Phosphatidylserine decarboxylase proenzyme (Caenibius tardaugens NBRC 16725), 252 residues
Amino acid sequence: MHVMPGELLDNKGRGEAAWRWPAIHPEGRKFALIAAAVCVVTAFLAWETVAWPLAVLTLCILAFFRDPERVVPQDPACVIAPADGLVSLIQQVPPPRELQLADGTGAPALGSEPVTRISIFMSVFDVHINRAPISGTIRRVIYLPGKFLNADLDKASEENERQHILIERSDGVAIAFTQIAGLVARRIVPFVKTGDTMAVGQRVGLIRFGSRVDVYLPQGTDAKVVLGQKVVAGETVLAELGKQQLIEGIAQ
């Protein structure tokens, strides 16, 4: 079992929990610095009608790139949400074409049989740092250029700019997830490469300004979340490996 560095907390009350301001990811600091600098200049010139919107923009940028700590479940049977957001689709579909066949490197292939795909839509208000759903080794990272359709649409999985990441556990279980750029999102920023060893919940990348992440579960595994549910990256259990059951939810 991989354990991420940090304080250990459990369901018996061990550890110490306290609210803290979330960190700002370095990827966003430069944008916030630019907006803040222009804001200061316009304020110095007494252009208040420009300075105030720039001040708000600076705060919005800081909020978008926030990187809060997460308490990551360490049960090896659990598949953890790689993204914050809304479960917008749960479907039985074949894995991405790029991952169906072996590529000659020894990396696992997912085959063409349908599996459960969970789509998580991230609005501009969600945290956009993506995390590893399981512990293991990155076997494939495949970037594909494409369109910038609304990420909430089903066809975005095949037509939008996207990046597939395939992680294989030491026991051979492989899970793929796809970072998909959306209508507003225009850049996928990876933090990992093929061959990297990941702990569950470890940060793997981000997508700027609204997007979607698709998770492809292994055959014989159903979603443990329901359509319309809000999930939290690194914390929400999406599925338990080998478990198949109907779970119903009521919107109220």
About this structure: The CA atoms of residues 116 and 226 lie 12 Å apart.
